[in-house]
Specification:
It is a single chain. By secondary structure, the chain is mainly α. It has 20 helices and no strands. The chain is globular, with a radius of gyration of 23 Å.
Length: 458
């Protein structure tokens, strides 16, 4: 019944039915059927009110609407638009400079918004016509835009890391209790933020190196930018560029700096970031009543979606547990040859494949609570596991044919851009991400070193 429940949920999700209702509705249907047949103890559903109350009282999850609010506010204030225009001019003398500019803007937007869909759409609308006009190969232009947009998955403050941090914290405590440790340690969102910094920056460095090398190997694919008439890189231009760089850099320092320095929790830092985003929008005179209405409406929609899925996932996990699904997963992963290495490899492969057809929120809320306690019981570092999962999901965001970043760009790309060009364009960046994922697998210190230095964690 547990396997049938999982398979049914997967099929219903593929039909396009709303995720929250697919999870919760299927779980309730199976719970009723199992109770009628005598295979399910309805007492498991009595825990639902406590689960929902726990969600409402969870201070970590307050960071979700705050970070979403910050990201939507920055998007509305047109900071990305000004950054792209000025950075394109700043790298005019560099071969492949537009590609470098796009990647740097993606990094800055990831570090100040953390919303992948909004970043890909914004970059596609603003940068793709410019790249094509300057003579860039369509595949390279599309690949660079998709790759830069998905950096919001791994670069803090990432919504993925916020949600993953909360789920992993519960899984880690449960794993320690299963091992007889009744004073369990915790893993926080701040730990994942710090652990993701070095891998995220390394990945950006690999992207930039690839673009620079490609620009010299295939100069016809990435020609030198041509400045528009009257566009001069004088002192006034550099001052304007500095003014455009200041808002995202200020937010990065305020949000991440306050967390790393220990001045604020991730939730408090999110509140600070949301407030600063409002102030910056006001200073740029980009915050009319209409803008504020749009920001609050979009924040409410995204937050409602996330928490509705979380409620549906709570129903699913309780029903799955009631059918003995957790014991089945534990025995299956524990009996694999090769121990924890094989178990982790199988889980990573499963998440990668599921990432083709499911959003990261569904995977984080459905898969991680099931496999997380099992893997963490095998003495796997929770911060390392969290960053591996985040990097893995970022890779699946790019992978054809169902990568979500590809759909986002396809929706805003000009009609002359063919879908196969988008698919071919992301291939080199997928290879780079798989290389980065392999490096993290071989050297966990790339993830754990900085948290150890900052927090003294083991």
């Amino acid at each position: 019944m547990a396997l049938l429940l999982f398979a049914t949920v997967f099929i219903v999700l593929l039909t396009g039915f709303p995720v929250a209702f697919a999870l919760g509705g299927t779980a309730l249907l199976f719970a009723g059927l199992g109770s009628y047949l005598g295979h399910f103890d309805s007492a498991f559903l009595e825990a639902v009110p406590n689960r929902l109350y726990g969600i409402m009282r969870n201070e970590t999850l307050i960071a979700v609407p705050l970070f979403v609010f910050m990201g939507v506010t920055l998007e509305r204030s047109k900071i990305a638009e000004h950054l792209i225009t000025d950075l394109n001019s700043a790298f005019a003398s560099v071969r492949g400079g537009l590609g470098v500019a796009v990647m740097l803007v993606g990094l800055l937007m990831a570090a100040s918004t953390g919303i992948v869909g909004a970043t890909v759409v914004t970059m596609g609308l603003l940068s793709l016509p410019t790249l094509l006009k300057q003579g860039y190969h369509p595949a390279i232009a599309c690949g660079a835009l998709c790759a830069s947009g998905t950096l919001g998955q791994i670069i803090p403050p990432s919504i993925v890391l916020v949600l993953l941090g909360d789920i992993l914290s519960n899984a880690y405590q449960q794993a320690q209790l299963n091992m007889g440790i009744f004073a369990p340690e915790t893993v926080s969102v701040g730990d994942l933020f710090v652990g993701a910094l070095l891998p995220g920056l390394m990945l950006v460095g690999m992207y930039l190196l690839f673009l620079i090398v490609l620009a010299h190997v295939k100069p016809a694919w990435m020609p030198r930018p041509i400045l528009a008439d009257g566009q001069q890189r004088d002192a006034r231009f550099w001052l304007r560029l500095l003014a455009d760089l200041a808002p995202p850099l200020l937010l990065m320092l305020a949000v991440l700096g306050s967390i790393i320095a220990g001045f604020a929790t991730p939730t408090e830092a999110a509140a600070l970031g949301a407030t600063l985003a409002l102030v910056l929008a006001l200073l740029r005179k980009q915050l009319s009543f209409k803008d504020l209405t749009h920001i609050t409406r979009e924040t409410t929609k995204i937050t409602s979606m996330v928490f509705a899925i979380l409620i549906g996932a709570a129903l699913f996990s309780l029903t799955f547990r009631g059918f003995g699904g957790e014991e089945l997963i534990v025995s299956w992963l524990s009996d694999l040859p090769g121990g924890k290495t094989t178990a982790l490899l199988v889980v990573m492969l499963l998440m990668f494949l599921l990432g083709f057809v499911l959003d990261f929120i569904e995977i984080v809320f459905v898969i991680v609570p099931i496999v997380g306690p099992v893997l963490l019981t095998m003495d796997i570092n929770p911060i390392w596991l969290g960053i591996l999962i985040a990097m893995n999901l970022q890779t699946s965001f790019l992978t054809p044919p169902f990568g979500f970043a590809l759909f986002y760009l396809r929706g805003v790309a000009p009609a002359e851009i063919q879908t196969r060009q988008i698919y071919w364009g992301v291939m080199p960046f997928i290879v780079l991400q798989l290389i980065m994922l392999s490096l993290l697998w071989l050297w966990p210190e790339l993830v754990t070193w900085l948290p150890q230095r900052v927090y003294g964690e083991s």
